Amino acid sequence: MAERHPAQPGSYRCRPGSPRKQGMRVFQDPKKHHEYWVRELSDGSYAVVFYRRDNNGFPKTFTASLNVLKIEAKSVHVRDLFLHRDLGVFSGSISAKVPPSGACRMFKVTPIRA
What we know:
With 114 residues, the protein is mainly beta. The protein is built from no helices and ten strands. It has strands at 2-4, 12-14, 24-28, 34-40, 46-52, 60-65, 75-80, 85-91, 93-98, 104-111.
């Protein structure tokens, strides 16, 4: 069960012993223009977010290796959670176009176990 964190209004944290896990930033580029966030889900898949901070006005393609995302698999099945569409099987990395200015793309990534 999540509870409001007293030091940060509007933020939440998980209680100790809670089955919920908090997402974590696994990558931030040196200029702080984009970040990758990952959270393991209860079914063994992962929620992955590509978050973009810059506002140059053009969509940009980002590619994250599965190693950077801390997903131990050679291939994964990817579903876009905003578009409600399966994107297919990716090997070694995930790529996506992200619009500028605080936009993100969110995926459900399921490892393919051999």
